[in-house]
Amino acid sequence: MKNEKTLIVISVISVILLFALGAYYYKNLSNFTQSTSKETLLIKPYSFKIGSDDAKVKLVEFFDPACGTCAQFYPFVKEIMKKHPEQIQLILRYAPFHENSDEVVKIIEASREQNLYLETLEFFFATQRYWINNHVVDKQAVWKLLENFWIDVSKLKADVQSEKITHLIKEDLEDAKALHVNKTPSYFVNGRALEKFGYQELVDLIEEELKK
Predict the structure, then answer these.
(1) Looking at the structure, do residues 37 and 57 belong to the same domain, yes or no?
(2) Which of 67, 113, 146, 148 has its CA 20 to 30 A from that of 128?
(3) Are residues 96 and 129 in the same domain?
(4) Does the N-terminal peptide bond of residue 65 adopt cis geometry, omega within 30 degrees of 0?
(5) CATH code assigned at 170
(6) Residue 99 bridge partners (DSSP)
(7) Is the separation of the CB atoms in 39 and 91 below 8 Å?
(8) Counting beta carbons within 10 angstroms of the beta carbon of residue 106, is it exposed (0 to 12), middle (13 to 18) or buried (19 or more)?
(9) Mind listing the pLDDT tens digit of every residue in the chain (212 residues)?
């Protein structure tokens, strides 16, 4: 009888241990899956990146080239990166929420074929007042303005027709929706969303991650 009781106790303990180990494994697997899933939503192989792949901080920005705040924050982000060379990588994602803004995104993306991505992006940020009217992108004004820019416009007009670019924009917008991005610019620092928008808040979040 004593041996039977001992066997029962051992069996109960074994079941409890197995349950605890199973719960621990499931919890960690769930956390890993969620983390991997979020990372997949944040960073795509095609995304334009500025900075080292070995950087400690991955700064993901969803932006709209027709967004005035995006244009204002762009120099601030560059300054933050300048203060921490090789420690921050900026990953640019598209969220063209303004009407016709996807046309500008297509041009920026197509400019990669001429190795003028950053130049084109900065050109549009600097000239927003000439091609935006009441928050709507004037597509004719955009192309007219490009005649004054050092880019092959004929090639650009052909390259923007790429279905790859159309699919890329669609995927960025789907990821933005899944991440609850509904305004631009929206920032994520090592996967952490910038909850309260502001320059100092962004600096603080980046500094926090750099210290880890």
Answers:
(1) no
(2) 113
(3) yes
(4) no
(5) 3.40.30.10
(6) 136
(7) no
(8) buried
(9) 545 554 444 444 443 433 343 343 334 433 333 444 788 999 999 999 999 999 999 999 999 999 999 999 999 999 999 999 999 999 999 999 999 999 999 999 999 999 999 999 999 999 999 999 999 999 999 999 999 999 999 999 999 999 999 999 999 999 999 999 999 999 999 999 999 999 999 999 999 999 99
Between the alpha carbon of residue 195 and those of residues 180, 188, 192, the distances in Å are 11, 9, 9
* DSSP structure class, residue 113: G
Same domain for 82 and 139:
yes
CA neighbor of 140 nearest in space, from 100, 94, 95: 100
Residues 155 and 185 in one domain: yes
Q: How many residues make up the chain in this entry?
A: 212
Shared-domain flag, residues 20 and 64: no
Residue 37: domain span: 1-42
If one counts the domains in the chain, the total is: 2
